[in-house]
Amino acid sequence: MNFIYDLHRTMMAEKLILVYEGDFTQESTKSILSMAERNLDSAGESSGTKRKVFNVMVEALQNIVKHSSEQGLQAGSLISRSAIFMISKDDLRYCVMTGNPIPKSRVAKLTNNLTELNNKDKEGLKEMYKEIIKNTQISEKGGAGLGFVDMARKSGEKLGFSFAEMDSEHDFFCLKVTISREKE
Amino acid sequence: MEILNLKGTEDTPSILLDKKNGIFEISGRSLPEDSAEFYRPVLDWIGSYAADPNPATEFTLKLEYFNTASSKLILDVLSALEEIKGMKILWYFHDDDEDMEEAGQEFSELVEIPFEFKTY
């Protein structure tokens, strides 16, 4: 059972304050949010930081919920609906991190989208947000196509992302959103 | 005209639309699983109200938090309100919530309705 201690040490080393692995639904999203909110409250975090972390968590979690429903068809195979969500915290920042399987066919487009976002400044992201909200329709999955733009705006830093090979058809998409802790 | 009164939950806002008493308010948190479905009755109500509105309407938006899918629907609500004469939006934000203030400013730039900004 060494893995228990190993996992514990990893979590300590990475300063992870919350890790959730499994199925993602609106119900699990609500539970994770209320757990994380309690954590932010008890840490006495400033309201600005709390709101930004909450905001990024919602978008990150709802992104996974939407994409798990796509993956659900392959339940039982290696590519299950399973995904991971975590939050780390050190003296300077919170990081909201997610990992979920996506079809390889989506990797190129996602890379382009995220790279485009990372090349924009505050004003550029604002213009992009307004442009999308004016023209978008809510998709069948309930998304407005605004999640990453919103996360980038709330973060104020570059979105970290990478893709790990899972099998011939899927990659594991890893996303890291950083939120600086405001000093009161 | 019927009153639309929805009690807020942990992921949906409170909604009170009452023509007779002149109360029009959406407040709280908005991160429903299906935002289009949640806001449909609101948009329907506004559609009926637009046919015979009060001479002046002050519509209060007092949101603590909304997700991006809700932001699209809030824009749809504002676009529906835009058609009504004598419309004014009261946009409330917590006095240290710059993001909510900015969100209100952005909405005000997207529709042709006067916005009044208020803190709480």
Task: Describe the model.
The complex is a heterodimer of chains A (184) and B (120). Chain A is α+β, with helices and mostly antiparallel strands and 184 residues long. Chain A is built from six helices and five strands, in the order αβααββαααββ. Chain A has helices at 2-13, 26-42, 47-71, 107-118, 122-135, 147-155, and strands spanning 16-22, 83-89, 93-103, 160-165, 170-180. Chain A has a five-stranded antiparallel β-sheet, with helices on both faces. Chain B has 120 residues and is of the alpha/beta class. Chain B has a single domain, classed as Transcription Regulator spoIIAA (2-Layer Sandwich), CATH 3.30.750. Chain B is 38% helix and 32% strand. Chain B has three helices and six strands. Chain B has a six-stranded mixed β-sheet with strand order 1-2-3-4-5-6, with helices on one face. In chain B, β5 (87-93), α3 (98-110) and β6 (115-119) form a beta-alpha-beta unit. Chain B is globular and about 35 Å long. The A-B interface holds A 26, 30, 34, 47-48, 51-52, 54-55, 58-59, 62, 65, 126, 129-130, 133-134, 136, 138, 142-144, 146-147, 149-150, 154 and B 10-11, 31, 33-36, 65, 67-69, 71-73, 75, 94, 96-99, 106, 109-110.
